[in-house]
Amino acid sequence: MKFFILLLAMLLLGCTQVNVPQQNVPRGENMRKVLLVVPPSEFRDEELFSTMQVINSAGFKTVIASTRMGQATGMLGGKVTPDILVSEVNVEDYGAVVFIGGQGVETNNLPENPDVVKLAKDANNSGKIIGAICIAPRILARAGVVKGKRVTAFGDNTTISYLKRAGAVYTGNPLEKDGMLITADGPSSAVKFGEEIVRALGG
Predict the structure, then answer these.
(1) Residues 103 and 134: beta-carbon distance below 8 Å
(2) Please, which of 35, 52, 70, 89 could form a disulfide with 94 given CB 3.0 to 4.6 Å?
(3) For residue 13, is it within any domain?
């Protein structure tokens, strides 16, 4: 009788273990997803498409976010439709959050957009890999996540000023990685930028 009671208890315990909350299950899979944040207009085409191609080719899934839905057009005419609004993003769903540059970062005033800045802060607080290319590191400066970090960016005076005021160590190199932070200077570094993100994700 004791044997059967013990067996029944073990079976019940097994059933209990099956009902683990599902929110804990997909964490590993989420690390295979990369969020690419683009301006709603005038993003730099190579910085999105070349970076995305490298990441996808390595077996990761990319999701595109922007500050408004509807088709976004790049500076060179490329088009993309965002999958999600920045305001709706949960950073825990992604292994990396990457900010794409282009003139649209400035014309759409992304460094002053509260949803964009909050996303950068949340990604930093959650220990996510954070990437930014061209003038998109201005967003990271406004979010306060570059202090004491070696970073690079497109070398215009406004962007350099953003970074230095935020306490960053601006290097002017094509690519920089400091901890979980990866930055690049522009379109010509997009492929290496994507490769560095893949390496940081363990790809």
Answers:
(1) no
(2) 35
(3) no
Could you tell me whether strands 181-184 and 175-178 are parallel, antiparallel, or unpaired per DSSP bridges?
A: antiparallel
Counted domains in the chain: 1
For the chain, list the strands marked E by DSSP: 33-37, 61-66, 72-73, 79-80, 84-85, 96-99, 129-133, 150-151, 169-170, 175-178, 181-184
| Strand order, beta sheet including 33-37 | 84-85, 61-66, 33-37, 96-99, 129-133, 181-184, 175-178
Return the minimum-mean-pLDDT range out of 4-8, 51-55, 155-159, 179-183: 4-8
pTM (2 decimals)? 0.86
Task: Please indicate, yes or no, if residue 26 is contained in any of the structural domains.
Answer: no
- What is the CA 111 to chain-centroid distance, rounded? 15
Say how far apart CA 78 and CA 162 lie, in whole Å: 28
In Å, the largest CA–CA distance within the chain is 82
* Amino acid 15: pLDDT: 33
Rg (CA), the chain: 20
Pairing of strands 33-37, 96-99: parallel
Residue 5 lies in a domain: no
Q: 156-187 pLDDT, tens per residue?
A: 999 999 999 999 999 999 999 999 999 999 99
